Automatic annotation (TrEMBL), chain A:
Residues 7-126 form the NIF system FeS cluster assembly NifU N-terminal domain. InterPro entries: NIF_FeS_clus_asmbl_NifU_N. Belongs to the NifU family. One of its GO terms (biological process) is iron-sulfur cluster assembly. One of its GO terms (molecular function) is iron ion binding. This is Nitrogen fixation protein NifU. SUPFAM superfamilies: SufE/NifU. NCBIfam families: SUF_scaf_2. CDD domains: IscU_like. Signal peptide: none annotated. It holds the Pfam family NifU_N.
TrEMBL record, chain B:
Belongs to the class-V pyridoxal-phosphate-dependent aminotransferase family. Csd subfamily. Gene3D superfamilies: Aspartate Aminotransferase, domain 1 (3.90.1150.10), Type I PLP-dependent aspartate aminotransferase-like (Major domain) (3.40.640.10). One of its GO terms (molecular function) is pyridoxal phosphate binding. It is an enzyme of class 2 (transferase). It catalyses: (sulfur carrier)-H + L-cysteine = (sulfur carrier)-SH + L-alanine. It comes from Terrimicrobium sacchariphilum. Catalyzes the removal of elemental sulfur and selenium atoms from L-cysteine, L-cystine, L-selenocysteine, and L-selenocystine to produce L-alanine. Its EC number is 2.8.1.7. This is Cysteine desulfurase. Pfam families: Aminotran_5 (PF00266).
Amino acid sequence: MNLEELYQEVILDHSKRPRNFGPLPDATVTVRGDNPSCGDEIELSLKLNGDQIEDVKFTGQGCAICMASASLLTLKVKKKEKAQAEALLKGFKDMLTAPEAPESNDTLGDLQIFSAVRRFPQRVKCATLSWRALEQALEAHAGSVTTEEPAS
Amino acid sequence: MAAGERSWEEIRKDFPVLDQEVNGRKLIYFDNAATSQKPLSVIEAMTHYYEHDNANVHRGLHELSNRATAGYEGARARLAAYLGAQDEEIIFTRGTTESINLVARAWGEEYLKAGDVVLLTEMEHHSNIVPWQLLAQRRGVKLRFIPVTPEGTLDLSNLDQLLDGVKLFSFVHISNSLGTINPAAELVRRAKAAGATVLVDAAQSAGHLPLDVKELGCDFLALSGHKMCGPTGIGLLYGRREILDAMPPFHGGGEMISTVTFEGSQYKPSPYRFEAGTPAIAEAIGLAAAAEYIDGIGRARIWEHDQLLAREGLAVLSQIPGIRILGPLDQRAGLVAFTLQSAHAHDVVSMADQEGLALRGGHHCTQPLLRKLGVPASSRASFAFYNTIEEIQRMGEILKKVQTFFA
């Protein structure tokens, strides 16, 4: 297994220059995700307007896979309807963790570069940390608008 | 090398696992602080037990049970000799963590009351923090910590003050995150003078340097078998005889009782009082074989070699641009944790793994310490006597490659 497959240019680029990085002062929901096995921490903030994700930003620190995944997440879900974000979330998780590797999923677009993580099981947590935070954020919004809850 | 001594190259051949390729490269195993590799003599001792002697201990009147009992009690005697203790002072546990929990439960709950102080250090492994936090919750005991300096050593300038009124002092002998060697004998002496009971966490030192509990003067000492060439699932607690005799049991059931009625039970003396149920017999025998193996090489010789590897490790790592080495730059054990400016510990470890180099990445179960040092995660190379200078130099090349990749 060639490591370049895991650390593709896009991933290195996003880890060095994460997009939408920083606080989101008018966030309606903020979820903190941490990976206690390594100390990685991500805080994902969403500004929800009805069912639309009007804005999304993140802060924190982690490995290249973790940071690139969070960065691409923000690009993909910004301005999307919640249902679309949920579909992306499911597609991303399935790509990495479903018992059978799914066929390529075009709606994931750039996110498909993370498919190699599937073959590095110890790195799945790194790639999914921000997505777990997103899942929590979307669920929290369904129940109450400004809940802050740590990711489980 | 003295006459009659086996060379390190020969010794290395005792470890079958080291002779393999990982990801197409020759394996370099530098995760020894997490668990060490096992020599053939340990593997064979356990296999022999299962192939010839397997039975339960103490209860049987038949031949195999006698052999199992002899093997298990022989292992206790071997470990007692390893530490300069009496047989009755060696309690087999699952490892350092369980040993510390045993002291916190059995000794702590009997002798500590609300407001009493337990002194720890900021460089403790979680296993020497959490049991005391649980005790604090149950009993209202207070925890106090000896601070760590930015250089990664204990700040002992206020030790007398910190020891004032302390009932128990528990500290790590060698830090698994910093490589710091704490002045154990001095710490024990000063704590005892202040009236404290002392527990030494020897998880990272027991397989690396000569240890004698009577010389050390501690009341308790905990170690894990698997970090000293022995099997997993076995370790021990040394306890000074008088203290153990005055302690209530830890777990209840099985071998630890002398009589049981429906109304109550009488407990056996130490060590049986603290060993409920069927013990890890093969593992105890394996651990004794490990002690035998280590002493066959000689702990003083192992420590000298450790120091050589530690110096080489530091020298090689220091040449990597943008590296931050945690812990003191001299007087350290054979493990070096570090961070690279360009790459997160996870990325370092993944990439090293592709080169056949096994490192550890993360917080090494010392989260509070790393938080204090402002390091979210670090990579760690920890050496054992079977490692070589060439392997350390190869690590230097691999890490330079990692840096170029992520720069």
